[in-house]
Amino acid sequence: MQKVAIVGASLAGLAAARALRGQSFTGEIIAIGAERHHPYDRPPLSKDFLTGACTVDDLALSDDEDLGIDWRLGTAATRLDPRRRSIHLADGQEIQVDGVIVATGARARRPAHADGLAGVHTLRTLDDALTLRDELRTTGRLVVIGAGFIGAEVASSARSLGWDVTVVEGLPTPLAGPLGPEMGALCAQLHADHGVRLKTGTPVSALLGSDRIEAVELADGVRLPADLVVAGIGAIPNVEWLDGSGLTVDGGVVTDAAGATGLPTVVATGDCAVSFSPFAGRAVRSEHWTHALDHPATAVATLLGATAPDTGKAPYFWSDQYGVRLQFAGHREPGDTVRIVEGDPEQRSFLAVYERGGHPVAVLGMNQPRLFTRWRRQLRAVPQEA
Ligand code: FAD
């Protein structure tokens, strides 16, 4: 293999380039990125970057001159043609390659009826964050739609800047999916303790305003006046460009655990890929920073026909909200039990373990990094019942 294209120039794409060189690939690497920026770190975008505690320069993932990458930035791949072994770009170029690493990640889901309405934002890219940071320079009434990680972090950042913040969430608690209702309730308390109003259980029905957002209407008829809206309602994998390529796409590019697709010269990794998780017992799209950092080495080994490193680590993510670090590893399913094994939620410092059939399947830490790491290491996938 002489020429490899990495499509998607973000964390997984950069990690793939590092892995190619680390695994002695001496051929040509072309990195194609829809964004105009070199790879940068997304987690600070909802945290220190919004509050002004870090700058654009602080986000840079690295100076990768020595990787010898041919960067093609600011132009998206529009088509993969496996028969001709080529990739078509939006600017009209067609690039012939021997191997392809798909690392096109995901984009933020936009709320319905937001088009043409100023003051309604999503947050996925540096450009999104620059625009939102500008809007946050004044203060006013912010409505955050969705109490997931991005929504909670934006609420926390905006509150620290003096905004009057309301978070609306259709489910009964924040983070009900990943953390479950008991731990979700503790996250709800975090919002309340910092003067953020949280409205749960009622979905948004409309965004009101003529040119600019004026209010958010809920399904029960309540209208929340808003000068600014940020929606954190999930992400959609960037896979449309693969239509007609012959790859299987089902909520992401379908791969095995080592990143292999149905085409021997194409692998996929990071937020765009769906693969079987022994922890979840089904195929999932992992949307976590650590996965996008670690998994590309496995996908690269698969592409190069080498032995793939172990992929058996428990999924892991963290979130910083209101000065609290949340860390979660493993996978929770409805019906799992959860108990606090150390610390005190009142003190914002505890460790909780989720169990299924007596096995620990997931662990949540709030400001308990050491204890969390110890428990995280012990997590093993629970054998699935036949
Ligand atoms: P992405 O980072 O989505 O990058 C994909 C890249 O591919 C993008 O640059 C995109 O423009 C490009 N692309 C898309 N389509 C094409 C195309 N057709 N052609 C060329 N290029 C294309 N995770 C945590 O674990 N903890 C956190 O605290 C945390 N905080 C986060 C905060 C924010 C605001 C966001 C947005 C994410 C956060 N994450 C966090 C998630 C983490 O950042 C992602 O899991 C990670 O960025 C995924 O990396 P990726 O390279 O797979 O995809």
UniProtKB/TrEMBL annotation:
Name this protein carries in UniProt: NAD/ferredoxin-dependent reductase-like protein
PANTHER family, alphabetized: APOPTOSIS-INDUCING FACTOR 1, RIESKE DOMAIN-CONTAINING PROTEIN-RELATED
Organism annotation: Actinoplanes lutulentus
Domain of life of the source: Bacteria
GO MF annotation terms: oxidoreductase activity, acting on NAD(P)H
Keywords: FAD, Flavoprotein, Oxidoreductase
Pfam families given in the database record: Pyr_redox_2, Reductase_C
Stretches assigned to the FAD/NAD(P)-binding domain: 3-294
Needed co-factor(s): FAD
Domain Reductase C-terminal: 316-379
GO terms under cellular component: cytoplasm
InterPro entries assigned: FAD-oxidoreductase/Apoptosis (IPR050446), FAD/NAD-bd_sf (IPR036188), FAD/NAD-binding_dom (IPR023753), FAD/NAD-linked_Rdtase_dimer_sf (IPR016156), Reductase_C (IPR028202)
